[in-house]
Specification:
The chain is built from twelve helices and nine strands. Strands 1, 2, 3, 4, 5, 6, 7, 8 and 9 form a nine-stranded mixed sheet that branches. It has about 350 residues and is of the alpha+beta class.
Length: about 350
């Protein structure tokens, strides 16, 4: 008798380790090769060029974890805006009771903040949590479910509308994520001596700064970009997410970030700011053999340390990887024809 469940098959994506990258975090410094799973073969070479530059720089890529939080928003209804406001004002003083509800289903989810929007009689409540080493999708939804039940029991003027209100915002490009953050907020920076910039990137600091302003900043503004000014963060994020067992759809908000460049004493200062890196080292997608192996090779499968250490390390490695690819592409685009020449050479099959 045929099984009623469809057979699960695999969709293989080419993967290669690139690097190493030289990374200097606040509490660790290493040279690390990173896995990228992608059909875009030139990406390996582009990130590889940025990685070689990082190794040749004295401090490599400096990474700073600015913040971390995972969010779920719930939607409640009141009779009118006045009742919605009164409920919100009361809820702001009830965080301890809400955390008690959260703890019933998770040892790791911690409610750290809340934000609201009132639209007519609708109360949008954005709940923000830390989630240990998990990316936290299911964890925060379960926590929100617990909180929702408690709210409905204690606030009879409110009624249920939705467990997810789009004010989170999950897998959508929104201003709220860029402003308040969703996931790990990481900044990656590098200072490249002028001679190294000219020799390895075939450009000058001035050309990179000028192109970043005219392409990433003004060009994105003209396109109507939302809290974003970069060349191709999504490329590196997708390759890294697939290789490390992440929910790849989160590159939508993950790719919202800003590339900034300056000339400093003749050298190139280059940075990538990513406020929405949603990733974890445990949970769904992490049980596949290749993912387990990749996380171990990245040093993100440690059994000791504090909850969240592995995921924080992974996010910083990811941000450094994004910087390598972003730097290489911008450098290439300062030179006419270089980008297309690389794609033709690496992707076009000989006839």
């Amino acid at each position: 008798m045929a099984s009623s469940s469809p057979k699960v098959t695999q969709a293989p994506v080419p993967m290669r380790f690139v690097g190493p990258l030289k990374i200097k975090a606040s509490d660790w410094e290493e040279k690390i090769a990173v896995p990228l799973a992608t059909y875009e073969i030139p990406l390996w070479h582009s990130v590889g060029r940025g990685a070689r530059v990082s190794v040749l720089c004295e401090d490599g890529i400096k990474t700073t974890l600015v913040d971390e939080r995972m969010t779920r928003s719930i939607l409640l209804e009141a009779d009118d805006a006045s009742d919605a406001l009164a409920a919100w004002q009361s809820l702001q003083n009830s965080q301890a009771q809400m955390q008690a509800e959260v703890s019933k289903s998770s040892r790791f989810a911690k409610l750290i903040d809340m934000h609201s929007q009132i639209v007519g009689n609708l109360l949008y409540l954005r709940l923000e949590f830390t989630t240990g080493d998990a990316s936290g999708h299911n964890m925060v939804t379960q926590a929100a479910d617990n909180i929702m039940a408690w709210v409905l029991d204690n606030y009879p003027q409110l009624s249920y509308c939705s467990i997810s209100a789009n004010y989170c915002s999950d897998k959508k490009a929104t201003a709220v994520n860029g402003i308040l953050g969703r996931g790990k907020y990481v900044v990656a920076e590098i200072t490249i001596p002028r001679a190294l910039c000219e020799r390895r990137l075939l450009t000058t600091p001035e050309k990179v700064v000028d192109l970043n302003i005219k392409k990433n900043l003004i060009g994105t503004l003209m396109a109507g970009g939302l809290r974003s000014a970069n060349a191709h963060y999504a490329n590196m994020l997708l390759g890294f997410y697939l290789a490390t067992g992440q929910d790849a759809a989160n590159i939508i908000e993950g790719s919202q970030g800003v590339t900034h460049a300056e000339v400093r004493d003749g050298d190139l200062y280059f940075s990538c700011t990513l406020p929405n890196l949603i990733m974890g080292t445990v949970g769904n997608g992490k049980g596949l053999d290749f993912v387990t192996d990749n996380l171990a090779r990245l040093g993100c499968a440690q059994q000791d340390g504090e909850p969240g250490d592995n995921s924080r390390r992974l996010a910083q490695i990811c941000a450094a990887t994004v910087l390598c690819g972003e730097l290489s592409l911008l450098a290439a685009q300062t030179n006419p024809g270089e980008l297309m020449e690389a794609h033709v050479k690496l992707e076009r099959k000989a006839k």
